[in-house]
Structure formats: C-alpha cells, structure tokens
Amino acid sequence: MILDKIDQLLKEVSNLSAQNADEIEQLRLKYLSKKGDITALMADFRNVPAEQKKEVGMKINELKQLAQDKLKELKECVGQQNKAEDAPDLTRTPYPIRLGTRHPLTIVRNQIIDIFQRMGFTLAEGPEIDDDLHVFTKLNFAPDHPARDMQDTFFIESNPNDVTKSVILRSHTSNDQSRVMERQQPPIRVICPGRVFRNEAISARAHCFFHQLEGLYIDKNVSFTDLKQVLLTFARELFGPDTDIRLRPSYFPFTEPSAEMDISCHICGGEGCGFCKHTGWVEILGCGMVDPNVLEACGIDSTVYSGYAFGLGIERITNLKYHVADLRMFSENDVRFLQEFQSAN
C-alpha cells in the first residue's frame, strides 16, 4: 500500500513544473513541509512491517531526494528566465537622455575668447599657484607698495627675506603675461583667461575666487588709440553694435597711463536706470599702456617697443549679460540655475 503511494508521488514529482517563485514555494509546502506528503510518508514508516522497512526506506529517501532536486532545478530555470527578462533589449529605442548645458561662465568666456581670437589674439595660460616674482614684482609692484593691498591674496609659502620667492595663489592672470614676455620677444598679442584668488569676504557681490581674462599687445608704435579701438570693437561684439564706451583715468602699477572702461548701459540704452545707478554707464574692465618698467623687468627694450594691457572679470560680464543677482550662484552648482542657460549654448 505504502509502496504504491510512493510510486505515485515519484511520478508526480518527476513531472513538476512552475512558472514563478510563488508556485515553487507552493510545491515545496505540498511535498517537503512538516505537513507535506513526503513527511507524512516518513511518519507512516513506523507501521511498515520489519521485512519491508529496508525497501520502503530506500524508496522514501529516493522520493525525498528527487523532490529536492526537482525544486532546485525549477528554481534555477525560473531564475534564468527572470534574468533574461531583466536584461536590456539592445534592439529597442533608447530612453531619451537629458542633455546638460555649459556653465554660464564658460559660455561667456568662450564668447570673449572668440571675439579676441578673431582680432588676432592667441591663448596663453599659466599656473594658478605662482611665485611673487611673476605675480607682483615683475609687474612693477614694489615689495612694500600699498597697491599690493588692493589684491590681497592667499600665501602658501612666505619668504620674509626675499618676497619674490613667496609662493601664492595668483590674484590676477597677469602672471601669465609676465611669463609670456619672459620667453617671447615682440610682437606679442595674447589673452590670458583663468581662475584667480583674493582674500575677500564672500557675499552676493564678491567671492574669494573668480575668473579673469586679461589681454596684452606689445609691438613697435603701439598707442592708446589702438587700445581704445580694440576695446570698442570688443564691447560692440559682445553687447551689441549700439554700445558706446568711455575711458576714465585710473591707477594700476603695471600700466601708465591707466583707465577704467565703462559701457553704455544696455538695459536703458544710456538713459539711466536702477541697474546702472542712473548714470547710463556700467564699468566692465581696467586697461592702460604697459609701464616701461614692466617691459624692462621682463627683458623687453622699452625704447623700441610699447604695448597695452587690459583685464576684465568674467563673472562681472556674465552678470551684465544675464542679470544674475548673486555672484555665489555661479559656484553653488544648483541644477535649476544652470538649466536656465540651456538656450545660451
């Protein structure tokens, strides 16, 4: 009687099938759980006559092993099927990928570089960590000159015995210009974009780091008129053909004469508004003729050559173009802010 029941269960177990893990679990409960059919057979084993115990015991063990092997096989088949279903279909149309956008500072920087490259300027780049010799001394900053306070920076390695050997974070990209003049004789026509650092309190209008672009042109018979025309062309290319400029006398250690350049407010057209503080003008850069002391310090004969230089803050220009209220937004990496410039690429 019990042998017939075992043979019947052997046939059932041999033909087991399942489509998913839930069905496999139901089969396990039916045959191998504490109340399962095979466990019930083992409970009835005590009633088997002694002469049949060996045969019945072997059959029950065979049935139990078959059930375990069959359930394991079903689990592997279902697992492979699920894995195949989860695998990516390489023939299907891909999901749409959201494209990023260039940073607004990069957009404006590239526009400025493009304008000056079309006027014959080439790119020059230098180190952000440099010595005092190239950042200040060769640019006509005396060791104790108060103009150094205007560009207070971060010292990495101070040398009180020889200030030229102090290592600092550059406060302007003029160090690139001094290095170009060291290794190259005129004519020189370069622009120097890069990141600079100054010891300033961080606020909506200032930061301890920002981006600059400076320009330098040295050749024979270069005049202030050449400088003015280049800057006028630049302003009209960047802000529109109706833009006017004005130059106001100023002071920089490395240029003489020096000037601050304003552009006519492109919001009110020079009529006066809150953005330009009702003056009709907005300051954008500093400029001037290269001081002969700078030329001589860099190995260029100031009796033969002359030149001009200018420098502007890229954050300042970007603010003027896009009216960004807080300078800190440029470095906070807020995706919502950056997405606003998608169409400006």
From TrEMBL:
PROSITE patterns xref list: AA_TRNA_LIGASE_II (PS50862)
Q: How is the cofactor bound?
A: Binds 2 magnesium ions per tetramer.
Subcellular localization is given as: Cytoplasm
Pinpoint the Aminoacyl-transfer RNA synthetases class-II family profile domain residues: 108-320
The reactions it catalyses are: tRNA(Phe) + L-phenylalanine + ATP = L-phenylalanyl-tRNA(Phe) + AMP + diphosphate + H(+)
The reply to whether Nucleus figures as a keyword in the UniProt entry is: no
UniProt entry keywords in alphabetical sequence: Aminoacyl-tRNA synthetase, ATP-binding, Cytoplasm, Ligase, Magnesium, Metal-binding, Nucleotide-binding, Protein biosynthesis
Q: What positions does the entry give for Mg(2+) binding?
A: E256
Q: What is this protein called?
A: Phenylalanine--tRNA ligase alpha subunit
* Source organism (scientific name): Hoylesella shahii DSM 15611 = JCM 12083
Write the lineage as a comma-separated list: Bacteria, Pseudomonadati, Bacteroidota, Bacteroidia, Bacteroidales
Gene that encodes the chain: pheS
